[in-house]
Design goal:
220 residues, alpha/beta, eight-stranded parallel sheet, 8 helices
Amino acid sequence: MIILAPSILSADFGRLREEIAAVADAGAGYIHIDVMDGMFVPSISFGMPVVKSIRPCTEKVFDVHMMVEEPGRYAQDMKAAGADLLCVHQEACRHLDRTVSLIHSLGMKAGVALNPATPVDVLDCILEQLDMVLVMSVNPGFGGQKFIPYTLEKVRRLRSRLQSLGLSTDIQVDGGVGLGNVRQVLEAGANIIVAGSAVFCGSPADNTRAFLKEFEEFER
């Protein structure tokens, strides 16, 4: 199943509830929430109060992408705020296995994100414990960046590795994905697509439906 996860980093913050409702009603499966601490990445964005305040907007999966140092420190608070899936960066966790185990113990799904220059084989020891792997197709920290082409090969290698292990783990791709290149990303093996400006610039509902139409045509 292919899932669209609109990134609210690109939404109109003055109309955040309305824009979340628009993409949810149009068929988006996840709501992608980028949490940034100003240390792991230069920017600062959402925290637990924002996640908690928008949780009543929808029953869709809250896919929280933790672009912070040692994200395990916030796992319990994110669960309390309404996160369903917590994705942490391999590069930001000193003890990745411990962090993934903590996320699962709190009742959330666990994902691990890899920066563009991080090889996928760093996850070999932990792949069987993951619900999702996020392949960053831009360097994290800012919206609206250009897709990095070599990350497609990372997606292919990761999907091949998962298949060799008999795993159906989700592969998410985040960064620079739009209607013009989403087919390539799907063909490489991704099944969860994060899109920010490609969804929220213009009509979020219409753009969401356009992505879903592309997904349907790909699956035929």
